[in-house]
Write a structure and sequence with these properties.
This protein has helices spanning 15-23, 52-55, 94-99, 113-116, 122-146, 149-157, 163-171, 178-188, 199-213, 228-234, 246-257, 276-286, and strands spanning 4-8, 40-49, 65-67, 70-79, 106-112, 215-221, 242-243. It has 288 residues and is an alpha/beta fold. Helix 10 links the parallel strand 6 and strand 7 (242-243). It is globular and about 75 Å long.
Length: 288
């Protein structure tokens, strides 16, 4: 499995609930910070139309499976314990937690929309939370790049070898390749001579990496607890934010697993096993 997505965010944002919902993995879920004390790892699937209909041959994928014309592509999901300010410096075991998503292809930044809705400036509160977490990621990645840099750069400058290739050997653990490195260096106008790099260059590299190579997708969890006005306000923000309800998604998954519904997307099609109270709850989720 080559694709990994990390779930990150501050404590008590609902990451573990979301993780459980999208991976069908039972984990400890509680309404207090630091319920998760070590990374949870599970598998989810990206669903795409299978190419077998186009090529006229039965699909037999090396990874995942095909069913009814749909390809289920496996993705590893890593739920990282809540990050606090200073995580990049090891506070709250931040370095240890971040290490588990070093090679993640993308990051889902989960925050508590209900908590943000209580702020005087709703949009500013969300933007600050996104900025704070990204800042910790940039500092953390910068420290990885800078590690033993002077000795590395001195040797690299003496070799007749592409800079991208040398950097890929040093920081390939970040899940980036030579092409990614070339794009980052071009975008940041970074020196080709590595011995000229300074702390600002490390930061520039990390910032561009998270902006252009490793997508950070903000997800507003607990959207079921706020007004539609707040949800609509998300659409007006400069950054794209996706409102979700991990609790609702988990309820759908469990209803499906217990044979209470036959579809995981509305309409859910309740079965005869479903009580009237459960039907009403499902209707409430459908209307969300």
């Amino acid at each position: 499995m080559s694709f990994k997505i990390g779930l990150i965010g501050k404590p008590n944002a609902g990451k573990s609930t979301l993780f459980s919902a999208i991976t069908a993995t039972e984990v400890e879920i509680a309404n207090y910070p630091f319920t998760t004390v070590s990374p949870n790892i599970g598998t989810s699937f990206i669903i795409r139309r299978c190419p077998e209909e186009i090529i006229g041959k039965k699909c037999n994928p090396n990874h995942g499976s095909c069913s009814n014309g749909n390809r289920f592509i496996p993705v590893q999901i890593v739920d990282v314990p809540g990050l606090i300010e200073g995580a990049s410096e090891g506070k709250g075991m931040g370095n240890q937690f971040l290490q588990s998503i070093t090679d993640a292809s993308a990051l889902i930044l989960v925050f508590d929309m209900n908590e943000a809705s209580k702020a005087v400036d709703f949009a500013a509160s969300i933007e600050k939370e996104i900025k704070d977490i990204k800042e910790e990621l940039i500092k953390w990645a910068s420290s990885i790049i800078a590690r033993d840099w002077e000795r590395f750069a001195k040797k690299a400058d003496s070799l007749n070898e592409k800079v991208e290739k040398q950097l890929s050997r040093k920081i390939g653990s970040l899940g980036i390749n030579e092409r990614d490195i070339h794009e980052i260096m071009s975008a940041g106008s970074l020196p080709q001579k590595l011995s000229l790099w300074s702390g600002d260059d490390f930061r520039t590299f990390a910032d561009i990496m998270f902006s252009r190579i490793k997508a950070i997708v903000p997800v507003a969890n607990k959207a079921d607890l706020v007004s539609h006005d707040k949800i609509n306000a998300l659409q007006k923000m400069d950054v794209k934010v996706f409102p979700v309800s991990a609790e609702y998604e988990l309820a759908i998954q469990r209803a499906l697993a217990h044979g209470l519904i036959t579809s995981r997307i509305p309409p859910f099609n309740p079965t005869q096993k479903t009580t009237q109270k459960q039907i009403e709850a499902l209707k409430h989720i459908e209307d969300f």
